[in-house]
Write a structure and sequence with these properties.
2 copies of one chain form a homodimer. By secondary structure, the first copy, chain A, is of the alpha+beta class. Helices cover about 35% and strands about 25% of the residues of chain A. The first copy, chain A, contains 13 helices and 25 strands. Chain A has an 11-stranded mixed sheet with strand order 3-9-10-16-13-12-11-24-25-23-22, sandwiched between helices. A 5-stranded mixed sheet of chain A has the order 18-17-19-20-21, sandwiched between helices.
């Protein structure tokens, strides 16, 4: 259970607040390994709920789960030039396979056994394109084997210099989809399908609005033809990339010789896609909804959706309320809800309320002797609002409240995002906006990397996406917001995590 | 889909047969990384079904899932003497964090960047006692924090010299439970609880009979006070350890300073347990039930439980049977079953039967125009037996058949095990049995490691367990089967995987 502690207000220090919320809700903890975190039960349960929902969506669209090795032979990274450049500076490399006693004392009692050096070092996967496409080359013979639609849930390692719980950790958990297709159109359809699936997950499960679109050349995945992404706006007005979907073209197929016989008898390279979302989504969820009292979890992903807190003084009340509380819990569980009945004896109700709030539980039911006498319980919402509801219809009342909360969280987050977006700003307004309160800035883009680099250097803002049609401004911008040259596409800029 | 290929008969070469069954059912494949396998969708689905069932059981007994880092600082292994001795010779060690271009061509174009050496090497977890108990030391303050009951689903790495798909791979997937308790009795209760839970899973889900009991000193886990295990007998009469549950005593608590304040105000070391089962269980399942036609999957864990194969000749028949087949599939899915309707056009029914057999699908439904006319379909069982069942009640007929098959598999495996066990053999009979057809040999044991070592050296048999009461012979042996000294316990010997 969470320890009572003071949470730094968002307005005072957003980053401190973020860490405090995580500690208060016991979502994660720092580990003795630099940059690696421990995901504690409350946080891991949230990840499992995310996994379950996403996995169902991935399966329903015809993908199957598999599992590929953690290690990748170093030489595989030499095969796709951009890919190795993207990852060479942040990989954990296994070079030996034994330890030996040194005869010394304490921490120095043990050392790497130099006689156990590997002939070829192994890289701990930072992502699995290379090892998976090496297997695809073995499995794919003909057009009948296509499309091949696989997904894996796994841990990956990227040696990050600056790390932050959930947002950027040396090891993280994710799913990575890998597919092979007969042609570019089919690969493109897949990459877009998944982008839509991720968007649906973000909106419907996380209650987190996102902008979808394409990345520019400078921001795309190492080895991809095109990268699509979804971007969300956090409460500190910094953007967070919540997922990516890549059309890899034939780059990896050529590097790993993944070819298929066409219906006409020819031999062609396949087209690949890869796509993933990570435990970073938990960080996104925290920074989208939570407040100065701690975690706010959207009902669909809350490990505990309802906490029942009895208020008793006498032993007789305790007996009576224990029976009622257990029955209400059972009724709610029958309705498919995740419920805790907090019968702890060594805590006052107020302290329990505080604790469940910090844990982000959307609905609390308070049951006291007086309520009971009048055949009702008090339904309190995490974000405010208390009202008595009839004891008879508790599951219906709670389900309705959870649905309303889920919808309200999404609406509030979208409203906040729109209030923190500007469109059609001049260069001066743009600089003031980005360096000031921050947010999403929409504007024309000339398509030149030099403009992008200059903007980044002066404002620390990057193009998050070239947004998909439905997110674009009503009137297409005519000139580049920065240099005034003709605009080739509207872009969304922001400082980002 | 599986490629038709010839499976080596068990009688000819059991090991070849095992590999053939895996390849035919596309459960796994060899990877380019020595000793690491790829778990293909059909095999991974089986693992997911196992995970789901086991996870429910683990949760129901009050455990919560969490996730700890993949890497463990090398110095942690110096803290528990037996533990490091058990694992030092088989760990993957990360020593560097960057690659660099060499200017050479091909596979040599890339090398480890020597300037990226870590100050302290990191060990890829072979098991997580050390890192988890380091965290326990941070989280546990008082008796109120106990018991602490955690579990994690993760990949681990042990640098094995001789590897074999599922049975012994460098990387494997598992769950590892880690708990902390106030005293020895509570830790012992936990270790036994989990052993029982594993047994129930093996029997009820895998249809695999097991013997439970304690390991001898020489076979227990590195760092444990007592190790309990479950042992199953494969079709080649070799034993396979299917899971272990350890009472770790206070060994790790002392090494990692995990102490708690007692109710009386004193300070005590906690008592730990750890326990795990791995993807090895898939190998156990294969070698328990499968036959010369390929995989036999127990219905509860079969990725596909029912394959519907239509038999059509004309386009009219095809249209009619497609409609019926889809409806039957839907009905079966509504009944909670995992179903495929095999409407492929480029294969004859016989080839489809062969393929579904190799994949281990317990029940096949054949639907032809004639059956349809008489309002029935043919229900064929993977292990033999074909009978028409009325089209109206297909879900009931199939559910009944699956229940019968599950029960029959368990009964047959138990019968086989008993037929391949001997009790009360003399030393000469024991040697003949173990070196001959093999199996489980029950006999008295003097408790001396020298006897164990001699038996192992001469027969390659080890004590699998000192069996729990219900598995023991009616009459307790009085003397050691090997040396004739007084017996301290009955033991079960076998050659083992």
């Amino acid at each position: 259970m969470a320890q009572a502690q003071k949470i730094t207000p968002r307005a005072k220090d957003f980053s401190e607040w973020y860490g405090d919320v995580i500690m208060q809700a016991q979502l994660a903890d720092y580990s003795p390994v630099r940059g690696c975190m421990v995901i504690r039960p409350h946080g891991y349960r949230m990840w499992e709920l995310m996994q379950r929902a996403l996995d169902d969506m991935i399966r329903e669209t015809g993908h199957r789960n598999a599992y590929f090795p953690l290690f990748i032979p170093m030489s595989f990274f030499a095969k796709e030039a951009q890919h190795v450049e993207g990852f060479a500076k942040e990989v954990a490399v296994v070079t030996h396979t034994r330890l030996r006693a040194t005869g010394k004392q304490g921490a120095e009692a043990i050392a790497v056994d130099p006689s156990s050096a590997l002939e070829e070092p192994l890289v701990v996967r930072p992502t699995s394109e290379t090892i998976i496409y090496a297997m695809f080359a073995k499995w794919i013979q003909s057009y009948r084997d296509l499309p091949l639609l696989l997904n894996q849930w796994a841990n990956v390692v990227r040696w990050e210099l600056r790390t932050r719980l959930f947002l950027r950790t040396t090891e993280f958990l994710w799913q990575e989809g890998h597919t092979a297709h007969v042609d570019e159109a089919d690969a493109e359809r897949e990459a877009r399908l998944i982008l839509g699936l991720y968007r649906r997950f973000a909106e419907e499960w996380m209650a987190m609005p996102v902008i979808t679109g394409a990345k520019t050349e400078s921001e795309k995945f190492a080895g991809a033809l095109r990268t699509y992404a979804l971007e969300a706006l956090m409460q500190d007005n910094k953007a967070l990339q919540a997922g990516t979907s890549h059309n890899l073209g034939q780059n990896f197929a050529k590097a790993f010789e993944v070819r298929y016989q066409t219906a006409a008898g020819g031999l062609e390279y396949v087209w690949n896609t890869s796509w993933g979302v990570t435990t970073r989504l938990i960080g996104a969820l925290i920074m989208t909804h939570s407040d100065d009292n701690g975690l706010v979890a959207p009902p669909k992903l809350a490990p505990v959706q309802v906490a029942i807190v009895p208020i008793w003084k006498t032993d007789e009340e305790k007996q009576q309320l224990s029976a009622i509380g257990s029955r209400v819990k059972e009724d709610l569980e029958k309705a498919g809800l995740r419920v805790e009945f907090d019968a702890r004896d060594n805590m006052k109700p107020g302290a329990k309320y505080f604790e469940w709030e910090g844990l982000g539980v959307p609905v609390r039911l308070e049951i006291g002797p007086r309520d009971l006498a009048s055949g009702q319980v008090v339904l309190a919402r995490r974000l405010g609002g208390k009202a008595p509801v009839p004891l008879q219809g508790v599951p219906a009342s709670v389900t309705k409240a959870l649905d309303e909360i889920q919808a309200a969280l999404f609406a509030a987050a979208r409203e906040r995002r729109e209030q923190n977006s500007i469109r059609g700003a001049t260069k001066a307004q743009f600089i003031e906006f980005i360096k000031g309160r921050g947010g999403f800035a929409y504007g024309g883009f000339c398509g030149r990397g030099t403009c992008e680099a200059e903007i980044k250097q002066q404002t620390n803002a990057t193009i998050r996406v070239l947004p998909d049609p439905e997110f674009r401004s009503k009137e297409a911008p005519k000139t580049c917001m920065w240099c005034g040259a003709p605009s080739i596409a509207e872009a969304v800029w922001a400082q980002a995590y």
